[in-house]
Design a protein that fits this description.
679 residues, alpha+beta, six-stranded mixed beta sheet
Length: 679
Amino acid sequence: MKLKSIVVICLMVVFAWSCKNDSKEPVKDDTTEKVEDKFDFNVEQFADIKILRYQIPGWENLSLKEQKLVYYLTQAGLAGRDIMWDQNYRHNLKIRKALENVYTTYSGDKNSEDWNAFETYLKRVWFSNGIHHHYSNDKLKPEFSRDYLNELFLATNTKLDGEAFDVIFNDKDTKKVNQAKGVDNVALSAVNFYGPNVTNADVEKFYAAKESPDPNRPLSFGLNSQLVKENGVLKERVYKSGGLYGSAIDEIIKWLEKAQGVAENKAQGDAIGLLIQYYKTGDLQTWDDYNVAWTAATEGNVDYINSFIEVYNDPLGYRGSYETIVQINDFDMSKKMKVLSDNAQWFEDNSPLMDEHKKKNVVGVTYKVVTVAGEAGDASPSTPIGVNLPNANWIRKEVGSKSVSLGNIINAYNNAGSTGRLKEFVHDEEELQLEEKYGQLADKLHTALHEVIGHASGQLNPGVGETKETLKNYASTLEEGRADLVGLYYLYDSKLQELGLVDDWKSVGKAAYDGYIRNGLMTQLIRLNLGDDVEEAHMRNRQWVSAWVFEKGKADNVIEKVTRDGKTYFNINDYDKLHELFGQLLKETQRIKSEGDYAAVEALVEGYGVKVDQDIHAEVLERNKQFTSAPYSGFVNPVLVPEMDENGEITAIKVTQPAGFPEQMLEYSKTYSFLPEVN
């Protein structure tokens, strides 16, 4: 599970055309530039997007062998980049190829409004890994005409025919992931996980017929495949060498084999070996074997995430999106935060869950603050700030999990400049001062508690199936809300001060509660168009958590809706009672998960998390107009440049920064396009 960077983070301070590169090592990226002593985290801003860059502190402290490991793992990640594009939508790669050809070869007027609109549209497509918004899932709307695009194509000898051209402008495939109630979510989602004419009922029937060899250790059916109909018969097209996406997967394997050769220890090398075997076979038992080995491989300075993992992009929660994150341990911060994982059993024992829903033995929860060295796929350009894996409940229970906080990503957010939104939406000076003094610490601790304690807590009742089967399209938002609630419950607890994590637990807790309610009921609405429902899983969970406690606390005026000078604010009057309400909701969300209560999760999410108060939404959008900073942020990646001797051996690896966002996107398309559909 991943914790995405959200509006709270903004308020903390608030590929042609491509030709395959057949060389043994990628060519040096000549578009990079050296980083100046005073690091500028900001790259550019367009539409609703702000592009940032991040540093890799501690790189020089790694040995050459460790640097090679990081380099090979980042290359493996980038080799599969186009898989994410194709997973997001069936025409994405064709569209990207055409748009990039125009961008790089057009010699006409580049000062016109139409050209600027074209440029912005392409950047938005790059950022979203396709033509649907990375967060809202709505199809991006170009602010130029069909005629203008045809003129550009004619001037650059670019070809894009039929449906792939028409879909840029028409009303088809308008939603990448459709989570609406009472519709066929699979049929109405444009995401390329399912073939034409496949329905919700088809998916549920197909996987209901599958049985795991060990029912107590269920396999992740559907995770690494596309489900299609051939002559009316459902079949899976498995992602593997020789299968779907095989040409890109072969490149991933090539780099993983290099990484295995410089592994830091046997456990790490064995885990990489199992990942290679999984990519070769597509076997889901091998995937589980790999996850068990990867979870247990906790020694060393370097770690990684790689494969088809998170299921948010599947409306029914089966299929994993391709993503990679390569990370270096931040030993100082990890040591400070290790106290959470060391006390995981205390948090479980003292939670408000029903006794039968508590784990009697929380095992193997490791927590580290890490420095990101490279990301790709679903983790880039929009990146999570925290990750807890693996996702299989039985592995979490029997073996444990790894939780990481992406320290240098959070640092980049914090240093990219304040937006001023905070002062606009806080209720009073006391709330402002709490946020400014304790907000960043509260956010860091919430991320840690969400990932380490939240996702690792609780257990399913015997005989209850996996949440994707029982809770279906509500599984992701329920799990993210449940983990949020664990964090919220313990952020207002003296245990954090006892463990030495805070100096004033009440102030930290108050800042956390203020920020969460403010965001859940108001500020995250800047990400929606007026009239839209809430669709994205994390946004839904923040709203249903906040709206539920607001409603349940009305009798005691726990959270007060205040109108002052025509503006709305939410003021917390009783933090102690709000803490109790978070505990009650945590107990109920765990019950829903443990029992697989679909009716209850549907009522919770649809009742509190989907519909938006239109008056407040209109007001928030109006109040937000004064701020120029974009509501969404993402990153370019540092570029690792190997230096070679006369024998082709790597003698050093230097860290450089890309000259800009378009330059990196074009370089990626040139170097890492391995799917034959566009070659």
